[in-house]
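A.,

Following up on our hallway conversation. Structure tokens first:
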């Protein structure tokens, strides 16, 4: 049966509307799926595979040590990848596990890559890989993060490496190493922040010059470079001081942004950096942010020692007394 002109016109118009609606829907879905940089409100995964979780399972229920460990195990915190703990043949599996947890928690992966040759200039966290092994390791990390692109991963790359470089006398080498690592890690869905020291370390202009050299070097091969820099990692400087410092550093750079570690700065700094007494956990991640500071995160896991100082065990080991002290205001006794 032939359709009337009016009916045919109506059906044609309806078809156009349906096509337009589909196009709009596809555009909206793609926009929603587009990788977004970290910002205020960002939630990162609280991994069950953490030293805090292990400590909570190993200490007596009802004890202050258990309460502190249990509380800290539940807090979203960056996961540190080291070649000692996650070698090249296992690091991809660890990131895949994190991706599963992140999806379950509607959160993002946040990892600290910490295996640079000559790490920590021979200090409490000395170690790392040789140049060839480091390249293989960061390549494996980059591929695993690309496989977890839907979690829009955040990478904090080699804390202290740039800020220590002038003291260690290896700035050119560090810039080259970090730029190569960025090239291994970079992806449209991965947000990379290099070391930015903290507000009581290098002057802002000097810190910016080092960061800028890494960014420029990582772009020479046509890469997208870094998102920015991270400050206060494993340190205790007040958030307001770090925000001001991040703005000053960024003023010497072109469009770079910052993340601030607030894991242990709730009582500010007493001038010490290695297990100083009287410190407290800081603001939860995702509660700070402006046009320069993307947000804050817990980067250094509270409860893990800075090194054998002020009564603490070797760097990275769980320290029950330190965990209790840091959470004293957050955990009911």
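Then the amino acids I'd put at each of the 333 positions:
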């Amino acid at each position: 049966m032939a359709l009337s002109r009016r009916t045919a016109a109506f059906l044609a118009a309806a078809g156009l509307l349906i096509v337009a609606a589909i196009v709009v829907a596809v555009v909206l879905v793609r926009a929603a799926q587009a990788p977004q940089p970290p910002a205020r409100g960002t939630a990162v995964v609280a991994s069950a595979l953490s030293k805090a979780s292990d400590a909570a399972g190993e200490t007596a229920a009802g004890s202050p040590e258990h309460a502190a460990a249990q509380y800290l195990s539940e807090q979203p915190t960056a996961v540190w990848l080291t070649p000692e703990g996650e070698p090249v043949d296992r690091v991809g599996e660890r990131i895949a596990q994190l991706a599963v947890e992140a999806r379950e928690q509607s959160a993002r992966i946040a990892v600290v890559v910490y295996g640079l040759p000559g790490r920590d200039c021979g200090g409490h966290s000395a170690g790392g890989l040789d140049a060839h092994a480091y390249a293989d390791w960061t390549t494996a990390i980059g591929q695993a993060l690309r496989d977890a692109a839907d979690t829009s991963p955040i990478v904090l790359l080699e804390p202290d490496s740039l800020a220590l470089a002038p003291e260690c006398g290896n700035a050119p080498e560090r810039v080259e190493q970090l730029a190569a690592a960025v090239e291994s890690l970079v992806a449209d869905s991965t947000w990379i922040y290099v070391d930015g020291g903290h507000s009581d370390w290098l002057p802002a202009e000097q810190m910016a010059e080092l960061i800028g050299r890494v960014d420029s070097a990582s772009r020479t091969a046509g890469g997208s470079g870094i998102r920015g820099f991270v400050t206060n990692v494993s340190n205790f400087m007040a958030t307001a001081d770090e925000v001001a410092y991040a703005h000053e550093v960024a003023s010497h750079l072109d469009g770079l942004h910052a993340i601030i570690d607030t894991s242990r700065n709730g009582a500010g700094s007493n001038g010490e950096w290695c297990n100083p007494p009287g410190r407290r956990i800081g603001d939860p991640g995702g509660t700070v942010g402006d046009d320069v500071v993307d947000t804050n995160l817990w980067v250094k896991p509270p409860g893990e020692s800075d090194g054998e100082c002020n009564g603490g065990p070797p760097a990275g080991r769980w320290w029950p007394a330190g965990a209790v002290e840091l959470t004293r205001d957050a955990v009911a006794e």
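The longest helix spans residues 5-33. Curious whether your intuition agrees with the design.

B.
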